[in-house]
Amino acid sequence: MFAAGGRTVRVLGVDPGLTRCGLGVVDGGKGRTVRCVAVDVVRTSADADLAHRLLGISDEVERWMDKYKPAAVAVERVFAQHNVRTAMGTAQAGGVVALAAARRGLPVVFHTPSEVKAAVSGSGRADKAQVTAMVMRLLNLEVAPKPADAADALALAICHLWREPMRARLAEAEARAAEMARTHKARLAAAAKQAKNPGAAR
């Protein structure tokens, strides 16, 4: 595994889809150092029934998880689209990925497209060409991952590597603040109770 500063975090990024499901594994080291480990696209035939298409995606995703052993899985969050059928298929593929990760005890985080674009390119409105160009630059790739689903999967992994530490710190700070608030409230309640009954503490 890629090592930087003695600590490496490996993330599997998944751009879910029934016809094409992008998979990208990225190692993150010290600072914002990132390296591409693997990238590919799982394809299923539109002529196959839904159950077998989902099974095909599940089998390949599980094979990647077992082979590359990521520490976390980043999946693109599905939003309502004009094509409801496409949105449903994307959500179903994402659910299969989340289930495979849960079976292995891996944390799964869903990132919105705008979060991914902003993390990688600096703009939440970047188009696919801009995202692909930045992914190539960040990972020092000479050839653009194709199709776009592959580049999007790598972008998801990079987004998670850069956003998750901050999100974790915020969650930890919120937990500490909540604990301090509970402690303070308990002390106030104890003080109020003693004020009403001064002899109780003797």
UniProtKB/TrEMBL annotation:
<feature type="active site">
    <location>
        <position position="149"/>
    </location>
</feature>
<dbReference type="GO" id="GO:0048476">
    <property type="term" value="C:Holliday junction resolvase complex"/>
</dbReference>
<keyword id="KW-0233">DNA recombination</keyword>
<keyword id="KW-0963">Cytoplasm</keyword>
<keyword id="KW-0255">Endonuclease</keyword>
<dbReference type="GO" id="GO:0005737">
    <property type="term" value="C:cytoplasm"/>
</dbReference>
<protein>
    <recommendedName>
        <fullName>Crossover junction endodeoxyribonuclease RuvC</fullName>
        <ecNumber>3.1.21.10</ecNumber>
    </recommendedName>
</protein>
<feature type="active site">
    <location>
        <position position="76"/>
    </location>
</feature>
<keyword id="KW-0227">DNA damage</keyword>
<dbReference type="GO" id="GO:0000287">
    <property type="term" value="F:magnesium ion binding"/>
</dbReference>
<comment type="similarity">
    <text>Belongs to the RuvC family.</text>
</comment>
<dbReference type="InterPro" id="IPR002176">
    <property type="entry name" value="X-over_junc_endoDNase_RuvC"/>
</dbReference>
<dbReference type="InterPro" id="IPR036397">
    <property type="entry name" value="RNaseH_sf"/>
</dbReference>
<feature type="binding site">
    <location>
        <position position="76"/>
    </location>
    <ligand>
        <name>Mg(2+) 2</name>
    </ligand>
</feature>
<feature type="active site">
    <location>
        <position position="15"/>
    </location>
</feature>
<keyword id="KW-0378">Hydrolase</keyword>
<dbReference type="GO" id="GO:0008821">
    <property type="term" value="F:crossover junction DNA endonuclease activity"/>
</dbReference>
<dbReference type="GO" id="GO:0006281">
    <property type="term" value="P:DNA repair"/>
</dbReference>
<keyword id="KW-0460">Magnesium</keyword>
<dbReference type="GO" id="GO:0006310">
    <property type="term" value="P:DNA recombination"/>
</dbReference>
<keyword id="KW-0234">DNA repair</keyword>
<dbReference type="GO" id="GO:0003677">
    <property type="term" value="F:DNA binding"/>
</dbReference>
<dbReference type="Pfam" id="PF02075">
    <property type="entry name" value="RuvC"/>
</dbReference>
<keyword id="KW-0238">DNA-binding</keyword>
<comment type="subunit">
    <text>Homodimer which binds Holliday junction (HJ) DNA. The HJ becomes 2-fold symmetrical on binding to RuvC with unstacked arms; it has a different conformation from HJ DNA in complex with RuvA. In the full resolvosome a probable DNA-RuvA(4)-RuvB(12)-RuvC(2) complex forms which resolves the HJ.</text>
</comment>
<keyword id="KW-0540">Nuclease</keyword>
<comment type="function">
    <text>The RuvA-RuvB-RuvC complex processes Holliday junction (HJ) DNA during genetic recombination and DNA repair. Endonuclease that resolves HJ intermediates. Cleaves cruciform DNA by making single-stranded nicks across the HJ at symmetrical positions within the homologous arms, yielding a 5'-phosphate and a 3'-hydroxyl group; requires a central core of homology in the junction. The consensus cleavage sequence is 5'-(A/T)TT(C/G)-3'. Cleavage occurs on the 3'-side of the TT dinucleotide at the point of strand exchange.</text>
</comment>
<keyword id="KW-0479">Metal-binding</keyword>
<dbReference type="InterPro" id="IPR020563">
    <property type="entry name" value="X-over_junc_endoDNase_Mg_BS"/>
</dbReference>
<dbReference type="InterPro" id="IPR012337">
    <property type="entry name" value="RNaseH-like_sf"/>
</dbReference>
<feature type="binding site">
    <location>
        <position position="15"/>
    </location>
    <ligand>
        <name>Mg(2+) 1</name>
    </ligand>
</feature>
<feature type="binding site">
    <location>
        <position position="149"/>
    </location>
    <ligand>
        <name>Mg(2+) 1</name>
    </ligand>
</feature>
